Amino acid sequence: MKIASIETFPLFYPLTQPYGDANGYKQYRTCFLFRITTQSGITGWGECVDWLPTLKLGFENRIIPHLIGKNALNRLQLVNHIKKWHQRAAAGVSMALTEIAAKHSGLSVCDLWGGRWREEVPVYASFQSYTDKVGWAKHSIHLVEQALDYGFTMIKVKIGGKTFKEDLMHILGVRNVMSENHQLILDANQSYDFSTAKQWGQPISEWNNFLWFEEPLPINLVSDYKLLRSSFPAPIAGGENLKNAKEFLAFLREGAIDIIQPDIAHEDGVDGFRHTLQLSRYFGVRASPHTFDGALSRLYAIFAQACLPAWSKMPLENIEPVEWDVMENPFNSIIPIEPGRGTAAIPTGEGIGVELDQGIIERYCWDGSMYS
Ligand code: MG
């Protein structure tokens, strides 16, 4: 099972209308895919996120030479080594080697992991609500309406990038196009101090279809999270940029959070990510995977959620949703799964059970030019 070759596919797409959150506007979307092939011809896809020139150089000069000739089934050792150079590249390698291990065994990824608890996983529509145009709020509400018409029942909208008053007006407008069957998530991207975060408690306390308040505070302020959680009228969520299960432990031990949000592309790969999800079960809190950096990462998050025991005994609400990027982003369609009715069906075929869309990969091939 020696690794014979690795091809890379850096992809780039300039946005027609920049969009963003409290951290600023995105001018483009990128995707870095690679395919590992073994000497026996088994292939596995990986995906990671960073500035494309960094990834291209890192793969060509260091990661690929290190992996060629190694045993593809030594996933944990190989990922642990590459993690020291580039954690997010290692996360991608863990995806490709997981797919190879599954195909080598003649199994789907979920069967390799011990089997699915469920055949589909709920997903929520995730928005980047801000644009640099005057009518940003109206545009945002229109996008929310489109997603609800499509069949999403849960939506995540951004706050924290405008004044409290302006954000509240926007959110009230969003709520106007929602029905009681739709559920709302607000994400502040670590924008507030404690007292400003608390201001949201009053309007949120009046909404009975509110799912969670995401990253109201800088994520290092564990004691402030604990204090906020103790009096806030809704669940507090966060952790999309934490790097491993150990970093989540501080929140879990302190009882500082209701819902952890590990991201498979930001953690120690597939295996580390699954450890974090399991950790949530030991501590009796929920885990809703964050995944905004690629469709392959999202597919692995869906697999992991399919294989995770339920968080409660409530039959219709016992597994937490996975994030689904609904913004302008052609790379969303690389994996051919539709989130109809706000759920994603789990592919059951060997390996990841789907073929990546080669047309998109060819169309948006990065030309190698620098960008900022
Ligand atoms: Mg977030």
General description of the model:
Helix 2 (75-83) packs antiparallel against helix 3, helix 10 (245-254) runs parallel beside helix 11 and helix 11 (269-283) crosses helix 12. 38% of the residues lie in helices and 20% in strands. The protein is an alpha/beta fold. The mean pLDDT is 97. The strands form two sheets. Strands 4, 5, 6, 7, 8, 9, 10, 11 and 12 form a nine-stranded mixed β-sheet that branches. The protein has a three-stranded antiparallel β-sheet with strand order 1-2-3. It has helices at 52-67, 75-83, 87-105, 109-112, 136-150, 164-176, 194-199, 201-205, 222-231, 245-254, 269-283, 295-306, 358-363, and strands at residues 3-21, 24-38, 43-48, 120-126, 154-158, 183-187, 210-214, 236-238, 259-260, 286-287, 322-325, 343-345. The chain contains 13 helices and twelve strands. The structure holds magnesium ion. Magnesium ion (MG) binds at residues 187, 189, 214-215, 240.
